[in-house]
Write a structure and sequence with these properties.
Elements (H helix, E strand, L loop, with lengths): L1 H4 L1 H8 L5 H13 L4 H10 L1 H8 L9 H15 L3 H8 L7 H9 L37 H12 L9 H8 L2 H17 L8 H9 L2 H13 L6 H13 L3 H12 L4 H18 L1
Helix pairs in contact: 3-4, 3-5, 3-6, 5-6, 5-7, 7-8, 11-12, 12-14, 13-14, 13-15, 14-16, 15-16
Amino acid sequence: MAFSHRPKETFPLILNFGATELALPVARVWHRFAGQRNLARQWILQWPEHTATALIPLVFVKPCDNSEAALFALRLLYEQGHSELLQTVANRWDRADMWPALEKILTQNPMEIYPARIPKAPDFWHPQMWSRPRLITNNQTVTNDALEIIGEMLRFTQGGRFYSGLEQLKTFCQPQTLAAFAWDLFTAWQQAGAPAKDNWAFLALSLFGDESTARDLTTQILAWPQEGKSARAVSGLNILTLMNNDMALIQLHHISQRAKSRPYVITRRNFFRWSQKIAG
């Protein structure tokens, strides 16, 4: 199927087509590809019955990429108010235990949701050489073991979704030290050639970035198109949109005023969507 190999080009063509055969490829996009997540989400919510029919059986197989993708898509339906539909579809298998088992999985503690396979640390992962997060309670830096745990949690990131344990980390560590750590991680990723499979190191800026991060990232976003890195500039804009601080909004507005190349035109939409979210 062309969609499986070229989702970016074919996604707009399938949004108006509901088919169980499309459910798994779309779920895989929702699970792994941040750039197309909004379209995948739109399809899943537009065709909930097709999604449920195709994906419910996959949740009960041996953990793998497909079962994880199916679970994330079904959890989206559950969270968006489709529990009755999911129960109706599950009952078609004529097994009394199907729906209770499925609902238990869908309501699992977020701290227990992580990939079946934990990716190994990349070669550029040397956190002992970077700025260390400091604890709020006693101003002590986190230990080497804690750094490795943070790295594992960051590598859980798939399709732009962060492991919930990282939100807890933010309650324990000084925000500015997390921002400095995230910037050093991002810098190491860039110096290693910015491997796409490790783009969690880039996305970490959206989770831990502060106002200083927004300023520094904007400088890079403005430079990347001239270096032939327009795709990275677009990703940077999305990260800036997610950073959720006043300086990020100011920088988005700044970039939108300079919008002459296509990546910056996209920023106008990001800027207005972000400002509406803040106002609302």
